[in-house]
Amino acid sequence: MSKTKVFYDLQEALGETGCPICRLKVAAVRQHLRGILWESVNDVDVRQDIRQARGFCQQHAWQLVEGGSSLGAVIIVRDVMKAVLKTLDSAALDAPKPSVFGRVLGSLDRRHVAPANADLIAVLAPQSTCPVCVFADHTENDLVDVMVASLTGEPALMDAFCASDGLCLLHLRQAMTRVRDEAIFEGLLNAQKTIWTRLVGQLDEIVRKEDYRFRHEPRGEEVGASLRAIAALSGPRIDTP
Fold first, then answer.
1. E strand or H helix at 80, and its extent?
2. How far apart are the C-alpha atoms of 83 and 123, rounded to whole Å?
3. How confident is the prediction along the chain (241 residues), in pLDDT tens digits per residue?
4. I need a labelling partner for 187 at 20 to 30 A (CA). Which of 53, 76, 117, 231 fits?
5. Residues 178/238/32/13 CA torsion (nearest 10 deg)
6. At what angle do helices 20-38 and 169-178 cross, to 10 degrees?
7. Would the CA dihedral through 12, 14, 20, 26 be positive or negative?
């Protein structure tokens, strides 16, 4: 993805609700998963990466079938299950020696297992990171880099940023680590503080209008502020397009 495309994607996402990095990352992951299902499901290297990771992480495994299970998903899951079963075929209990020390250790720590069993358990664990997590991390880093680099200059994102919901807390921290210019750093923080101060004011309005004296007042821009605040602190709901 070119930096120019990322810039315009960010510019468009800043006009939407929520953190633009979160929005574009989720969209990129969905597109990547569709690519695996419909274009790469028979790619030997892709299948090996998924097998090594023992499938996908919990989040991305369920995103794989959020629109319903497909033949591609069945092929991937079957492949990983066969790999796990092949590993289990060699499983045999290696009982700890019935020594006093062994019994005492076992009673103190239920996680203590014999060496052979420990090796088997380790092999059943993911041998590499979820490949979609790797993709998501790379995408996220690219988006944050371009965001920071494009806050000033020509064209710039700062005006669109100031009018937006800003970044979530996670991506604000990431952006702060990349800024090397004091003016950009101050501009980013001041804009984000203004955005969140406005959000806190909307939360205050929700609380105020719960008072019986003000319940008759019509709801305004504070509608949905609690969900926006949760997304700002913790990230978006994954099941939301």
1. helix 71-88
2. 11
3. 456 899 999 999 999 999 999 999 999 999 999 999 999 999 999 999 999 999 999 999 999 998 788 899 999 999 999 999 988 887 666 655 555 555 555 555 555 555 657 777 888 888 999 999 999 999 999 999 999 999 998 889 999 999 999 999 999 999 999 999 999 999 999 999 999 999 999 999 999 998 889 889 899 889 999 999 999 999 988 764 4
4. 231
5. -50
6. 100
7. negative
